[in-house]
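Fold this sequence, please.
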Amino acid sequence: MQNGYGPLPIGLGGVSSYSEDEDNPWRNTYLKVSKLPEGLTDMKQGAIETNIYQKVYQAYLSGNITKDWYEELQESWTWIPDTLNLSKTPVRTQIAFAYGKDADGILKIVVDANNNLDLTDDKPFTPLGTMSFEDSTAMANVIDVSFEIFVHNKIVPVNVPLFIVHVKAIDMFMCNFARYATAQFKGVQIAVSSDNFTNLSYKNIKVALMLNDPENGEKLKDEDLYRKNEYIEIKNEIYRISGVNTNKSTLVLEKTSLSKAQLYSTQTGYKSPLFRKEEFTTKSTVALDSLKGKYVMLDFWATWCGPCIQEFSHLKELYAKTDREKFEIVGIVGGSRPDALADVINRHEITWPQILSDDADKITETYGISSYPTTFLIDPEGFIIAKNLRGHKLEEKVLSLIMDGESL
């Protein structure tokens, strides 16, 4: 484990205070602070979670959440608890905090850095008010916090740098943990971060080959990162990234004998995963393999996503300029109701095929969609050639590809 962020891009996760709703299913998991800080008014309490999966597992075993809620979380998170690598004995995964205004009306937050549930021995501070920062700025403003992890079948205390900001525009505290992991394999150094540094569960990971000194401040681009179930090439051999086993403290790689041209992945240069589903309006079948011979853009979006809706004007222009024998758009809609999708299609006069993805087909899960909009541009042979192109960049790319094909 290394303190800092290394070559990996940084993210921030939201921090919320406790809900006062008596019916909140999390209510019995709230930390009970023995002493609150003095000198703050309008105070609210909450906790920063380091490993929500361990928390949920132990809360279920102790009866602090119901069986129904436990099963509902597994389904919504697409999570099957690995009970062999989770602790049945409770682990201190949470870090208590409280915030309020001081005598001058300035917002202050107090974090239970030593995790003793006493906030009187912790110093209130005013966090930075920006989401844009350099690594050096974050590291100059971290506080070291204590909690526990379950590793090698033991509960182990750790100290980790925590960085907190308060975004005034949305009146929300956000944070990350300035810690990443490194591994050595066949003489190659690999860096691993957990979910943009916003927690330390390592369920969602980003992996990078460390070709340069991580201390030089250079950040890798998104296209240079690997994620769970993607493929990584090391010393001319291909491995699938199975994930991180936090109990054994290992990055798990599975070697494959297949060539890159034989593998299906959401990475550039690989074959796009296949799917078959009925089109939302016409009920005709849309199958990716039936679209071979033309360029295809997969547009993953949601009815509640503002940037997705804004993109429709560009897509309509591009659709009108291109020949259906050479280019097709397929919209894949996740996390949305059928009535909402029908309304958006009618209101914006969308004419290209739309698929409503659900828990049965798991298309959005297969493609690892974590945010909207997400796009994939696929060539006539079914290989992904670009990701997340939008607006004029998408139009320029598609039109140039079609023109090059015509010239051949």
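The first strand starts at residue 2 and ends at 3. The two ends are 52 Å apart (CA to CA).
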